């Protein structure tokens, strides 16, 4: 089966604006068959995790599967997503978290690695299943960062099956959500969905562009990404400065304007 999926989505179980039911309806309208959730693990205890998993199951049917998962905050402000995971590791060391996700049958992905994380990740004793090559909340909707693709190539020398992931990191109702994964799982069951991610039976899709799960893109495209991402970061920095300047005198961007900006940045 070939399906459209959304990766890295938050709900009101952590810091998202949308309930799980609203997440379902939103992505059904976008033509998705699967949504890979990634709510922040620090919002949960055992009872809340059980409720989260049960609600995802109750809202899943032949039209759309909501697969529960967690985003773990680790030391040095690193985040590791565990797709398919509804358990807590008891450690904030990223290598421990990666091992925990694997032991529980999930898919581990380092989310939106910051520039200071890029030289650190290759020193890990255990590498994840993948790196989030493009996170449209963190990187913007224009283009990803070429340095993350370079990291992926470097890590693949140690772990050839490591994949490039493409996530929305959706939190807000009107946030940009034009980045999807077209994937080919054997079925909509948890094991088959996660197996398709591990095996790289997916590609990122945004507008008319497709991006491979192995992260192997041309140097020309990486150069284009670099220029576009730099422009986007400059615009985002201007917006952040304007918000900081507005703060001390009690002004803020109108809610409607902020919603529109989230569609693009």
Structural features, described:
- 35% of the residues lie in helices and 21% in strands.
- The strands form two sheets. The chain has a six-stranded mixed sheet with strand order 4-2-1-10-11-12. A six-stranded mixed sheet has the order 3-5-6-7-8-9.
- Helix 1 links the parallel strand 1 (3-9) and strand 2.
- The protein has one domain: TIM Barrel.
- With 265 residues, it is α/β, with parallel strands linked by helices.
- The model has no long low-confidence stretch (mean pLDDT 95).
Mean pLDDT: 95
Number of domains: 1
Approximate strand percentage = 15-25%
Instruction: Label the CATH architecture.
Output: Alpha-Beta Barrel
Termini separation comes to 33 Å
Order of helices and strands: EHEEHEEEHEEHEEHEEHH
CATH superfamily: Metal-dependent hydrolases
- At the first level of CATH, the class is Alpha Beta
Which structural class do the helices and strands define?
alpha/beta
The number of helices is 7
Q: What general form does the structure show?
A: globular
Order of adjacent strands in the largest pleated sheet: 4-2-1-10-11-12
How many strands, what sense, and barrel or not for the largest sheet?
Answer: 6 strands, mixed
Using only CA atoms, what is the Rg? 18 Å
Which stretches of 5+ consecutive residues score pLDDT under 50? Answer: none
